[in-house]
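Progress note, sequence design subtask.
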């Protein structure tokens, strides 16, 4: 155990730290969802964020896609978030192309447009309600690990934790502000969800290879004298690209890019430049005025080679970053969190035959998804920026054909929405294992009447005909099909993906399949498990 140290380096024996189950670094959407899941599973969780709690967090994301809404539904949060925004029923990437989200088989066949701060506000409230210790104004300055623990050195600027759960007013503290202090947190695991400039990733010595794909984009929050008829106004031509999306309170986020611009991120920018870009790309600047802020930025495509390093994991923008095309960034990070949280909880609670194999599966499942998202967003931004007759002709051909080819349209919508993302089936299993579970209808009961209501218990859900016995000793929710004609048995993971299924199964076969996922190795072996659980690497 390490004593905290004051600004002069003196140890403070009153400020010792017990070993925490998980420390999460970064209180953006990814870190908040992950921390809330872990605390809901009964783990001790500390979430640190370098920003003061009162500091504004730039809204970078607006789009919440269908798969993310399903995951929030499994936590009882989706409907409240939907009420904060507006729905987009069609994806219009460029050139008049329109792809209908109504083709998706989901409870949420649309993209929700809502500012990132609405998502964060909802997730922070949930995290606090589950017992997460959120410490704002608490920056990571060092990290090291051994076989059993992770030690995180942190610094607070005013000598307090600035905890979100502490309702005491700053005015109640008399006297001059305290000097910055450093201290250490000790955890069984740590997760870096601290963004593109991740301190956790740097401390681990992990590279972040990639390149800049879009340079000198102009970004501003503005008011519009003539708002666009479409909720999302976006278009491009050979020279420029422009994009408007509403906050919902009269402000709009405006983004513009001009092909011939060579300006650096630090070069001055004014509203006239953005107006000119919008008029070139859209034919109008919609009467933009009164910017509350304006700046330049560039967009990278990067991905860390490994999402796990010993007892430390990376998620969200700390692990992968790409262009804003498609609105995939925040959604991918939230889905990273949903994949990792239940695996950490199962490993720490001993509810898995092989904890290390289960934790390794986070990288094995999510790294290919991150790579796919980089390809999708990269293809979209390159299509928007297409130059030269060959590339422009190819884009025009795609605009004309894609909406007319049903399977191709469904594939595109499935990837952008996340509904079509699947993981490889574990060895010894077969499809649909690894695929997203739809919101299946269940016999009404204490756990609801559909699958994503049953998932709100936070664990595995076993769906069977009513004559099947609940496997003994396994921490899961056992529910039944709404129709008695269905004979299949399906085991669904906490993140809403199918772990195992069979057209029919005896009680003994059910017990073996469940044990392969949920029981310690000794009990799993005793049950004759052959359900293709996490100990069997794909």
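Output:
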């Amino acid at each position: 155990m390490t004593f905290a140290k004051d600004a002069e380096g003196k140890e403070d024996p009153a400020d010792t730290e017990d070993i925490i189950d998980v420390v999460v670094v970064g209180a953006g959407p990814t870190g908040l969802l992950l921390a809330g899941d872990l605390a809901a599973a009964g783990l001790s969780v500390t979430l640190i964020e370098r920003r003061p709690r009162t500091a504004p967090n730039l809204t970078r994301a607006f789009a919440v896609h269908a798969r993310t809404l399903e995951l929030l539904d499994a936590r009882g949060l989706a409907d409240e978030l939907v009420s904060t925004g507006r729905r987009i029923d069609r994806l219009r990437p460029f050139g008049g192309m329109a792809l209908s989200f109504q083709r998706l088989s989901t409870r949420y066949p649309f993209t929700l447009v809502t500012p990132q701060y609405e998502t964060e506000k909802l997730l922070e409230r949930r995290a606090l309600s589950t017992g997460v210790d959120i410490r704002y104004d608490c920056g990571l300055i060092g990290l090291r690990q051994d076989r059993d623990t992770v030690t995180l050195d942190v610094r607070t600027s005013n000598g307090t934790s600035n905890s979100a759960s502490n309702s005491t007013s700053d005015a109640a503290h008399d006297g001059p502000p305290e000097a910055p202090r450093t201290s250490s947190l000790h955890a069984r695991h740590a997760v870096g969800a601290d963004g593109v400039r991740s301190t956790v990733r740097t401390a681990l010595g992990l590279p972040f290879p990639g390149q800049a794909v879009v340079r000198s984009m102009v970004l501003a929050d503005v008011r519009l004298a003539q708002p666009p008829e479409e909720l999302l106004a976006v278009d491009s031509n050979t020279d420029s690209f422009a994009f408007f999306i509403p906050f919902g309170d009269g402000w709009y986020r405006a983004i513009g890019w001009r092909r011939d611009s060579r300006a650096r991120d630090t070069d001055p920018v004014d509203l006239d430049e953005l107006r000119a870009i919008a008029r070139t790309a859209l034919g109008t600047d919609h009467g933009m005025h009164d910017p509350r802020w304006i700046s330049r930025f560039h967009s990278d495509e990067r991905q860390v080679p490994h999402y796990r390093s010993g007892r430390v994991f990376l998620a969200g923008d700390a692990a992968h970053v790409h262009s804003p095309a498609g609105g995939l960034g925040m959604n991918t990070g939230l889905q990273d969190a949903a994949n990792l949280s239940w695996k950490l909880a199962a490993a720490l609670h001993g509810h898995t035959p092989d904890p290390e194999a289960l934790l390794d599966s986070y990288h094995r499942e999510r790294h290919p998804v991150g790579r796919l998202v980089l390809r999708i967003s990269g293809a979209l931004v390159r299509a928007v920026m297409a130059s030269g007759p060959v590339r422009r002709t190819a884009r025009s051909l795609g605009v004309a054909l894609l909406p007319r080819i049903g399977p191709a349209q469904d594939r595109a919508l499935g990837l952008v929405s996340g509904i079509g993302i699947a993981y490889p089936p574990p060895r010894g299993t077969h499809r649909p294992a690894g695929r997203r579970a739809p919101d299946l209808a269940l016999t009404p009961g204490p756990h609801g009447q559909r699958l994503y209501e049953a998932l709100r218990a936070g664990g595995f859900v076993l769906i069977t005909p009513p004559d099947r016995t609940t496997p003994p000793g396994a921490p899961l929710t056992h529910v039944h099909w709404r129709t008695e004609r269905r004979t299949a048995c399906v085991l669904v993971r906490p993140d809403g993906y199918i772990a195992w299924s069979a057209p029919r199964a005896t009680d003994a076969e059910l017990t073996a399949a469940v044990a392969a996922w949920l029981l310690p190795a000794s009990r799993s072996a005793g049950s004759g498990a052959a359900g293709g659980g996490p100990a069997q690497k794909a």
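The first strand starts at residue 4 and ends at 5. Work on this subtask will continue into the next period as scheduled.
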